[in-house]
Inverse folding.
């Protein structure tokens, strides 16, 4: 528990591996449909990995994360298209500031709550945000939403197609994953684990519990906003129906299905749910029922999520006696 | 001697119930003071208020002359007030060593040169080693709390509380379930810490222990302070014998 642990070789290898996988995906996947799924998936991972710190590591089940995702998308939409014609990167910077400020302000009433009450409080925030997105025409375009977000560009290099937008998403995914990893492995991670276990005891041992709760809540909200800001130019148009309470549940599902309390789990959850949603399309009007059923089965049989199941499988395989 | 802790006219109301009624008392620096009384007397509520786990409805708590009643829990802990709980509380997903280290890490590097009990001085690792040795926990450093018996878990909890290098330690029934031999071992540890400058406020129902180790006693009954004095005086106080000690001695 003392200080920041030294970086292990296998951790460096894991990061190199992740970068190579993303690079390979960008270089070798040319199918536009797959690229689109990957690009949207990357944006959702940007939000979900930090969100995993909040609900998995810290144990605070937030049910309104789509509010911050939507806020990010609308700040970009408003500043670049709807009311102003600002530069995309400037808008993304504004997303960071606006989301941080809103999350910080909300943290005051929300962190007077714990457990189920916190979950219900955030659910209320999610619903309130959805209704605001629907009715505040000046900011969001109301039910018509926003369309035609300009293509982000760095100099002459435009992120104008799915492949390049995936690259943009992948870069932010790396930033989101790396910062989450860095936070989880040091004093912050220990503080979060203690808060999840017994926050009164942690406070009695000198931990400024409220500071860490606010830090992670704001951190997760900022990355949810960045994810929304990335999501905006990936769509021809978007409207409030993307940021409903159901969308907030989806973030929770990603973390629980993938494996809460881990960093890989939430990313795995996004991949699994995205693939599953496509796979059940063949069931026509029954697809949502089949989707729900599969989610229930997953939770039932893989309590530690998919990542937990993979780890168990790996342990079983590596323990098997070798013949030969 | 000067008072390290001053409790002035503290009350605590839960709805219509007044759990603590205008209680005032002082704890001298370096003393081992007992807070006794029947169940429901308000002793644990008093400790909860001093350690800022609960806020008082009115009154003042002074630590070294400084009012701390409006401080959050972590700040009271960093100011030098540490505590244990009636029901043993540890971080169950962390090993014994990690549990004790939490106090070292989060106490903000508290440095109190006048404290010399084991674990109060030195580097983080030296302090951890000293606490493990003091409580006979070296063999359990990498063991999870769930694998330990009541006695060892209680020791881990006190070691964790001492890892903050506190000036004042609040112990809530630390001897519950202990045999005489086990109690004597813990008494020896507490005495060693006291010699090293630690002040202890002890809530305890084991009257043999209380009468033997405490230098001064406060008796609470129905949320109010019923009596105070040296153990010999308390034992002969008719009111105390009538409401509490009659059953205990």
């Amino acid at each position: 528990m003392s200080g920041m642990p030294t970086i292990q070789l296998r951790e460096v290898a894991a990061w190199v591996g992740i970068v190579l996988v993303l690079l390979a995906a960008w270089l070798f996947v040319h199918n536009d449909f797959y690229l689109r799924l990957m690009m949207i998936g990357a944006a959702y991972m940007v939000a979900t990995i930090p969100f995993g710190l909040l609900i998995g590591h810290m144990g605070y089940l937030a049910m309104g994360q789509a509010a911050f995702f939507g806020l990010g998308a609308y700040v970009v939409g408003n500043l670049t298209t709807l009311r102003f014609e600002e530069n995309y990167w400037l808008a993304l910077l504004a997303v960071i500031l606006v989301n941080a400020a809103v999350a910080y302000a909300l943290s005051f009433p929300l962190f007077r709550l714990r457990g189920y009450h916190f979950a219900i409080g955030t659910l209320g925030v999610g619903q309130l945000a959805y209704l605001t997105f629907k009715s505040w025409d000046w900011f969001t375009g109301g039910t018509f939403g926003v369309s035609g977000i300009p293509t982000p560009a760095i100099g002459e290099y435009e992120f104008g197609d799915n492949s390049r937008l995936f690259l943009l998403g992948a870069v932010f995914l790396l930033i989101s994953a790396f910062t989450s990893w860095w936070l989880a492995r040091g004093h912050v991670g220990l503080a979060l684990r203690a808060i999840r276990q017994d926050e009164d005891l942690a406070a009695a041992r000198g931990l400024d519990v409220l500071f860490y709760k606010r830090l992670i809540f704001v951190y997760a909200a900022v990355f949810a906003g960045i994810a929304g800001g990335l999501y905006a130019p990936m769509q021809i148009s978007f409207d409030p129906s993307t940021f409903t309470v159901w969308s907030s549940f989806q973030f929770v599902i990603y973390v629980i299905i993938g494996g809460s309390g881990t960093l890989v789990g939430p990313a795995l959850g996004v991949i699994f749910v995205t693939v599953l949603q496509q796979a059940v399309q063949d069931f026509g009007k029954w697809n949502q029922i089949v989707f729900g059923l599969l989610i229930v089965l997953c939770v039932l049989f893989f309590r530690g999520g998919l990542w937990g199941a993979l780890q168990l499988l790996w342990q079983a395989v590596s323990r098997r006696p070798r013949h030969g | 001697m000067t008072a390290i802790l001053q409790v002035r006219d503290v009350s605590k109301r839960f709805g219509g119930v007044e759990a603590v009624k205008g209680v005032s008392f002082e704890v001298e620096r370096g003393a081992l003071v007992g807070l006794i009384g029947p169940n429901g007397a308000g002793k644990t509520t008093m400790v909860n208020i001093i350690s800022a786990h609960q806020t008082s409805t009115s009154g003042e708590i002074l630590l070294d002359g400084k009012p701390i009643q409006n401080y959050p829990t972590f700040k009271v802990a960093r100011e030098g007030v540490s505590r244990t709980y009636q029901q043993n509380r540890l971080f169950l997903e962390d090993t014994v060593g990690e549990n004790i280290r939490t106090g070292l890490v989060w106490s903000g590097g508290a440095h109190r040169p006048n404290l010399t009990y084991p674990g109060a001085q030195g580097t983080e690792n030296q302090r951890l080693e000293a606490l493990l040795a003091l409580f006979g926990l070296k063999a359990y450093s990498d063991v999870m709390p769930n694998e330990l018996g009541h006695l060892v878990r209680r020791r881990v909890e006190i070691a964790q509380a001492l890892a903050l290098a506190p000036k004042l330690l609040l112990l809530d029934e630390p001897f519950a379930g202990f045999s005489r031999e086990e109690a004597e071992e813990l008494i020896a540890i507490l005495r060693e810490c006291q010699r090293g400058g630690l002040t202890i406020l002890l809530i305890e129902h084991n009257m043999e222990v209380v009468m033997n180790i405490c230098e001064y006693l406060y008796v609470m009954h129905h949320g109010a302070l019923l009596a105070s004095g040296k153990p010999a005086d308390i034992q002969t106080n008719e009111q105390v014998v009538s409401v509490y000690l009659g059953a205990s001695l």
